[in-house]
Design a protein that fits this description.
The complex is a heterodimer of chains A (248) and B (283). Chain A is built from 10 helices and 8 strands. Chain A is α/β, with parallel strands linked by helices and 248 residues long. The radius of gyration of chain A is 17 Å and the shape is globular. Chain A starts with 12 loop residues before the first strand and ends with a helix. The N terminus of chain A is likely disordered. Chain B has 283 residues and is α/β, with parallel strands linked by helices. Chain B has 10 helices and 8 strands. In chain B, helix 4 packs parallel to helix 5 and helix 7 packs parallel to helix 8. Classes of the chains: A alpha/beta (248), B alpha/beta (283). Chains A and B meet through helix 1 and helix 10 of A and helix 1, helix 2 and helix 9 of B.
Chain lengths: 248, 283
């Protein structure tokens, strides 16, 4: 029987956008204004927006200041997703700031910040996010491992890291970005039903035809677990839309 | 400022196919000998997605048994032959929609030469070199000479900037291909999948003055800035469109090129005209 469900949600939200420069290659025009133009061009209504430099700052709070300032004129469309380093003093205030500013989520980068994804810091952050009602965004990789700069040595996120984080608190909700099919399947089938229901995935790095990884995951994991994510300004934003469209 | 919703995404996607020909210069098909139970389903998926994207010609290869009975990048002579025969069968089954490369392993150079002669005589339109032997190696010279003699292009699998050896491949990059292309100025070479992994900027900077090397846009990579650097370094005249094993990202790069307002000549060249010249196709 023909599947008549829409491949794309009616109100499109890009859940995986960032702004700001990247130390290892030039990202063309990584600004909120360019992001707005791309969203408009592609018919995407809103975006969750992180901050690339905050991935590399020691004091992430200062990066969040920059993110909020950059997005201030565009808050109806660009929703800030600040970063939190739970191994650095004052991190609880960043979670509280995210809640107070009605941010939908916060981001963290264990390998870049130097804490164990399966350790006490992540458990504390997971609990804080659950209590604050904000989703926690984890990023598997920023760039394809084959092209990384020789100084860019942060490890990619493992399935074990995701599984440990979702177990940090019974109500923590995760959004994992830039995962491939193998990692999605590992976490989904390596979790209880209740745990898996608290993990969402973006489509940025999932393959379409002819291998049809996204279509296979829709069947195996459930399409409700997947959200649109472009990984702007690293990737062409039309790629995520097309991957979803071709998964029908 | 609020983003203006210029047009719904679905509406925008419908406009993608265009009405002019679209040649995918880097496609693969599977066959029964690949050991995958879903081989026919994957082939059909490629054809179905191609119809939605608007692909009018898939130029494709089969790399032996794709690892089932010998390594993908070091296929046995028997697997090479079986793969090429299966490729010719697919071409025959889809006349006008699918064209084929002859894939060879240059380590078995006598077999490779015979395989190319047999394939081209049967209507194959190009030669596919994967990662069996580094592109700069002299073993490839008879193959490049055949390509020049028959005026068919060589699609060379590449890792964009090889900085180390990689398991199960004898990888080549643009610098390796430059050596081969310099020894065979009458042959045409295509650097495979600029988005297929590695430092694409390294390849593009290297190929700026390589008049007999074209660049195929396939690969899973859709990095912003890559298309702009392709145009800056090799120009639209030496770009050809392709998908490899991720047709979604191929379509995305085509959409992005359309949005760059290149002009119809440049876009038509990338879509099909340059490929038609390289492969001597009538489309």
């Amino acid at each position: 029987m023909e599947d008549r469900r829409p491949a794309l949600p009616v109100d499109l939200v890009d859940h995986n956008a960032l702004v700001g420069p990247y130390p290892f290659r030039r990202l063309p025009d990584p600004t909120p204004e360019r992001l707005l133009a791309e969203l408009s061009r592609l018919g995407i209504g809103r975006a969750w927006v992180g901050h690339v430099p905050s991935i590399y700052y020691r004091d992430v709070a200062a990066g969040n200041d920059e993110l909020f300032r950059l997005l201030e004129p565009h808050r109806s469309t660009l929703l800030p997703v600040p970063a939190v380093n739970p191994a650095y003093p004052g991190w609880e205030r960043e979670v509280e700031r995210a809640r107070a500013e009605r941010c939908p989520a916060v981001r963290t980068y264990p390998a870049h910040y130097g804490f164990a994804a399966g350790g006490s810091e992540m458990r504390a952050l997971g609990s804080a996010c659950a209590n604050a009602g904000v989703e926690l965004v984890l990023t598997v990789r920023l760039e394809d491992g084959r092209q990384r700069h020789h100084l860019d040595v942060a490890a990619e996120l493992l399935g074990a890291d995701v599984r440990a984080t979702v177990r940090a608190h019974p109500e923590v909700r995760l959004l994992v970005t830039n995962a491939d099919r193998a990692l999605v399947e590992e976490v989904h089938f390596g979790s209880t039903e209740a745990e898996a229901a608290r993990v969402r995935w973006d489509v940025a790095c999932l393959w379409g035809p002819p291998e049809d990884h996204l279509a296979a995951l829709f069947r195996a994991v459930g399409r409700e677990r997947f959200v649109l994510g472009s990984h702007f300004p690293f990737r062409l934003p039309e790629a995520a839309l097309i991957t979803v469209e071709l998964a029908r | 400022m609020t983003a203006q919703r210029a047009r719904p995404a679905r509406e925008a996607l419908k406009e993608t196919g265009g009405s002019s020909p679209l040649v995918d210069v880097h496609a693969h098909f599977l066959h029964e000998g690949c050991g995958r139970s879903d081989w026919a389903e994957r082939n059909q998926s490629r054809l179905d997605a191609g119809a939605r994207i608007g692909i009018t010609l898939h130029v494709a290869s089969i790399l032996g048994s794709f690892g089932h009975t010998s390594p993908t990048y070091f296929p046995s002579p028997e697997d090479v032959t079986a793969g090429n025969e299966a490729m010719r069968e697919i071409v025959r089954a889809h006349p006008g929609l699918v064209a084929g490369y002859v894939a060879v392993n240059p380590n078995h150079v006598g077999h490779a030469v015979a395989e190319i002669e047999r394939g081209l005589a049967a209507g194959m339109v190009g030669i596919k070199l994967a990662a069996s032997r580094r592109a700069s190696d002299a073993l490839l010279d008879p193959i490049a000479a055949l390509a020049a003699e028959h005026r068919v292009p060589v699609l060379q699998h590449a890792w964009q900037h090889r900085r180390r050896e990689v398991a199960n491949q004898e990888i080549s990059d643009a610098l390796d291909l430059l050596e081969l292309a310099a020894r065979h100025p009458a042959a045409a070479f295509i650097l495979a999948h600029i988005g297929g992994g590695g430092d694409w900027a390294h390849s593009l900077r290297a190929l700026r003055d390589a008049a007999n090397i074209w660049v195929d846009l396939s690969g899973s990579g859709v990095d912003r800035g890559m298309l702009e650097l392709c145009l800056e370094c090799v120009g639209h005249e030496r770009l050809v469109w392709g998908t490899d094993i991720t047709m979604d990202t191929g379509w995305a790069k085509l959409r992005a090129l359309e949005a760059m307002n290149l002009g119809s000549d440049a876009l038509e060249g990338i879509r099909w005209k340059t490929a038609a010249r390289l492969f001597r196709l009538t489309l």
